[in-house]
Design brief:
Elements: H1 2-11, E1 34-36, E2 40-42, H2 45-93
Antiparallel strand pairs: 1-2
The structure holds zinc ion (ZN).
The site of zinc ion has 8 residues, from loops.
Pfam families: zf-FLZ
InterPro entries: FLZ1/2/3, Zf-FLZ_dom
Protein name: FLZ-type domain-containing protein
Amino acid sequence: MRSAALSYAEFSEPHFLEACTLCSKPLGNNSDIFMYRGNTPYCSQECRQEQIESDEARERRWKVSSSSSSSKKSTETSKKPATAVQTGTLVASN
Ligand SMILES: [Zn+2]
Protein backbone atom coordinates (compact mmCIF):
# COMPACT_ATOMS: atom_id res chain seq x y z
CA MET A 1 0.00 0.00 0.00
CA ARG A 2 2.75 2.40 1.00
CA SER A 3 4.82 1.78 -2.10
CA ALA A 4 1.74 2.26 -4.23
CA ALA A 5 1.16 5.68 -2.71
CA LEU A 6 4.81 6.54 -3.33
CA SER A 7 4.73 5.50 -6.97
CA TYR A 8 1.54 7.46 -7.42
CA ALA A 9 3.27 10.59 -6.11
CA GLU A 10 6.08 10.00 -8.58
CA PHE A 11 3.67 9.39 -11.40
CA SER A 12 1.72 12.56 -10.69
CA GLU A 13 4.81 14.65 -11.38
CA PRO A 14 4.25 16.62 -14.57
CA HIS A 15 6.07 15.40 -17.65
CA PHE A 16 7.37 18.84 -18.50
CA LEU A 17 9.66 18.66 -15.50
CA GLU A 18 11.71 15.97 -17.20
CA ALA A 19 13.76 18.26 -19.41
CA CYS A 20 14.96 21.83 -19.67
CA THR A 21 12.52 23.90 -21.70
CA LEU A 22 15.29 25.76 -23.46
CA CYS A 23 18.05 23.23 -24.21
CA SER A 24 16.05 19.99 -23.60
CA LYS A 25 18.70 18.76 -21.21
CA PRO A 26 17.24 15.99 -19.03
CA LEU A 27 16.50 17.14 -15.52
CA GLY A 28 17.53 14.39 -13.13
CA ASN A 29 16.65 14.06 -9.49
CA ASN A 30 19.99 15.42 -8.38
CA SER A 31 20.11 18.36 -10.74
CA ASP A 32 18.76 21.77 -9.83
CA ILE A 33 15.57 22.87 -11.50
CA PHE A 34 14.94 26.53 -12.08
CA MET A 35 11.28 27.32 -12.45
CA TYR A 36 9.94 30.18 -14.48
CA ARG A 37 6.33 31.36 -14.73
CA GLY A 38 5.31 28.57 -12.37
CA ASN A 39 5.40 25.64 -14.79
CA THR A 40 8.42 25.85 -17.07
CA PRO A 41 11.60 24.18 -15.79
CA TYR A 42 15.18 25.02 -16.76
CA CYS A 43 18.42 23.19 -16.04
CA SER A 44 20.31 26.33 -15.11
CA GLN A 45 19.90 29.96 -14.23
CA GLU A 46 21.44 30.83 -17.60
CA CYS A 47 18.77 28.90 -19.51
CA ARG A 48 16.00 30.53 -17.50
CA GLN A 49 17.53 33.97 -17.90
CA GLU A 50 17.70 33.45 -21.67
CA GLN A 51 14.03 32.56 -21.73
CA ILE A 52 13.15 35.63 -19.66
CA GLU A 53 15.12 37.87 -22.00
CA SER A 54 13.58 36.37 -25.13
CA ASP A 55 10.14 36.76 -23.57
CA GLU A 56 10.81 40.41 -22.87
CA ALA A 57 12.12 40.91 -26.39
CA ARG A 58 9.02 39.24 -27.82
CA GLU A 59 6.77 41.48 -25.76
CA ARG A 60 8.63 44.52 -27.01
CA ARG A 61 8.39 43.30 -30.60
CA TRP A 62 4.68 42.62 -30.17
CA LYS A 63 4.14 46.19 -29.05
CA VAL A 64 6.07 47.46 -32.07
CA SER A 65 4.18 45.24 -34.53
CA SER A 66 0.83 46.24 -33.05
CA SER A 67 1.67 49.90 -33.56
CA SER A 68 2.85 49.25 -37.12
CA SER A 69 -0.44 47.50 -37.90
CA SER A 70 -2.12 50.88 -37.60
CA SER A 71 0.14 52.13 -40.39
CA LYS A 72 -1.01 49.12 -42.44
CA LYS A 73 -4.54 50.50 -42.29
CA SER A 74 -3.43 53.77 -43.86
CA THR A 75 -1.80 51.79 -46.69
CA GLU A 76 -5.09 50.00 -47.30
CA THR A 77 -7.05 53.23 -47.49
CA SER A 78 -4.51 54.73 -49.89
CA LYS A 79 -4.92 51.65 -52.10
CA LYS A 80 -8.59 52.35 -52.78
CA PRO A 81 -8.16 55.57 -54.77
CA ALA A 82 -5.37 53.88 -56.76
CA THR A 83 -7.82 51.18 -57.92
CA ALA A 84 -10.33 53.86 -58.88
CA VAL A 85 -7.69 55.57 -60.98
CA GLN A 86 -6.80 52.27 -62.71
CA THR A 87 -10.45 51.67 -63.64
CA GLY A 88 -10.68 55.20 -64.92
CA THR A 89 -7.62 54.70 -67.11
CA LEU A 90 -9.07 51.49 -68.53
CA VAL A 91 -12.30 53.22 -69.46
CA ALA A 92 -10.40 56.12 -71.02
CA SER A 93 -8.17 53.86 -73.19
CA ASN A 94 -11.22 52.03 -74.54
ZN1 LIG B 1 18.94 24.23 -20.17
